[in-house]
Amino acid sequence: MLIDTHCHLDAAEFNADRDHVATDANRAGVNKIVVPAVARDNFQTVIDLAHQHAHCFMGLGIHPMYVDSANPSDLTLLKQLISEQLAHINPKLVAVGEIGLDFFVTQQNRETQEYFFIEQLKIAQGFQLPVILHVRRAIDDVLKQLRRHPVVGGIAHAFNGSPQQAEAFIQLGFKLGFGGTMTYTRALKIRELAKNLPLEAIVLETDAPDIPPEWLGTAGRNSPAELIKIAQVFADIRGIAVSQIIEITGKNSVQILPKLASLCTPLKVLH
Q1: For the chain: N or C, fewer Cβ within 10 A?
Q2: Whole-number Å distance between alpha carbons of 105 and 124
Q3: Is the pLDDT of residue 46 over 70?
């Protein structure tokens, strides 16, 4: 099963053709798409999107790059919405996310980032939900908070750390997300990780519309339909059949986000 574990299908870049993008991905063989929220303003958009498309699922959370416009009441709303979504017979909420730390742009709001990260880890603990992590230039700090506030696991999205940091995430029950970056032949570090890390620790993602693969160019709009080509690149790196990559990473995705298995009926786009 081919699963895009990280796709911002709600992004403004898809406003003109969102339904077509979702349908095209499904026709291209992408069985399921996880759409993580980033802020209070898009919670409801992500919820609606997940319920409009049978093959779309959601994460709800506050992204570290949006914490400066957030306040504690957003955390209260987050808990309320998570509780409501989990009450569905077949809940489409699979994780708390996208949450984490980002010290690439700035560290001036470090305390605010850490506050929202820790509080959302506590929410994930309370609901026994995995988390979808943003870890840019902050891997060791994220790991430190995970050890202090352990959760049931999750995904380190767009992982680009060291083998030692990868092992630390694996030991904490996490999978590592790989996508468009590993399609670049010059991305030697990422491709080495993709080649050598345990297959059972890896899930696939696009981060669409961001992190476009090499064939789209750095200015291209990424989309979930590109995942099949990304899977083929990963298969080439590993030297195994793409069918194996799809099977193994799909199992990994459902293992770490078990609510992805809640709907196993044939998939089609709902209108």
Answers
A1: C
A2: 26
A3: yes
The Cα–Cα gap between 225 and 186 comes to: 23
| Position 269 confidence tier, pLDDT thresholds 50, 70, 90 | very low
Look at phi and psi of residue 153 and say left if phi exceeds 0, alpha if psi is from -120 to 50, else beta: left
Question: Containing H/E element for 36?
Answer: strand 30-36
Q: Give the CA distances from residue 219 to residues 186, 210, 227, in Å, rounded to whole numbers and listed in that order.
A: 17, 9, 18
DSSP H stretches of helix in 87-225: 110-127, 139-148, 163-171, 188-196
What whole-number distance in Å separates Cα of residue 255 and Cα of residue 171? 15
Backbone angles phi, psi at 176, to 5 degrees: -115, 130
pLDDT digits over 194-234, tens only?
A: 999 999 999 999 999 999 999 999 889 999 999 999 999 99
| CB-count exposure of residue 163 (10 Å: 0-12, 13-18, 19+) | exposed
**Which architecture, in CATH terms, is 2-262?**
Alpha-Beta Barrel (3.20)
> Which of 124, 116, 175 minimizes the C-alpha distance to 152?
124
Residue boundaries of the structural domains of the chain = 2-262
User: What are 145's two structure tokens?
Assistant: 């908070």
**Any idea what DSSP says for residue 269?**
B
Torsion angle (degrees, nearest 10) of CA 57, 63, 68, 71:
50
